[in-house]
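B., you asked whether I could sanity-check this one before it goes into the benchmark set. Here's the sequence:
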Amino acid sequence: MITGKRYYGEEEEEASEEARWFRELVEEGSSLIGASNLRDFLPVLRWVDYQGVNKRLVTVQKGREEFMQRLIDEHRSKSREEGVEKKTMMGVLLSLQKTDPEYYTDEMIKSLGVGLLAAGTDTSSDTVEWAMSLLLNNPQTLKKAREEIDAHVGNGRLLEEVDISNLPYLQCVITETLRMYPAAPLLLPHESSQECSVGGFHIPRGMMLLVNAYAVHRDPKVWEEPTKFMPERFEGGKGGGGKLMIPFGMGRRRCPGEGLAMRVVGLALGALIQCFEWKRIGKEKADMTEGSGLTLPKAVPLEAMYRPCQSMLDTLKKL
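And here's what the prediction gave me:
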């Protein structure tokens, strides 16, 4: 989407090396941003990088900028050689740079690219992995989702973005996954702009504030059987019965990538269900232990067995 490049699959060695670098930047960045830092709890250490976290964050940020600058230079060079700019985010921004270079600077393009890469990669992939784990542990739900896709899309073509709105049960599966395993369980840190009082608690100016979306989504006083995977709780436009769902935050600071994320996850998960038959690797259910970080990865990566659906073989061969 950003540059029209794919890093996974049967690719050249150069692309594989670039993919490895990209994964390292994403994983290190997510780990550091979600790490517990003594400076957050002891203001006296604000000017002392006691744990070396700040130094590592600076290194990761430099790596991200270098990575994006390489993509910009490569895209710019290919556009000159081929004379045609691909309809990618990078191509559009570079074409706009020609008409308004003072606004569409390389720094601005890099910032947009880094924002998408940092916030829209492991969050979406983690959600798909959690969803597949839940579906494998609940085969009847997986069967119901596949039947819906077969009925509305068929096997003569791949599921497309326009189909997602016609797949309400698939959307329920994704919503229930985000309820149980929000991509950012504590959302993003905010800071009080002025002194205030909330729920009887005194909040000083400049205080870091975190919203525990994970706890909100699993509150037994609000949700019926909160630890049970039940996409049906969102069926029929019930929306959880008016209960608070905040996997993307809320208000003016709500995640701007929500629409894109729901489409990407819907397409990825829908295609996996449509094209393949899935089974667990053994009798035991998939491990649902949670990892740590700013996002919520699985502590034990999902392993599963799959094979192409017989009804989709002809369609898959045409790809």
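One thing to flag: The chain has two domains: 13-118, 122-317. Otherwise nothing jumped out at me.
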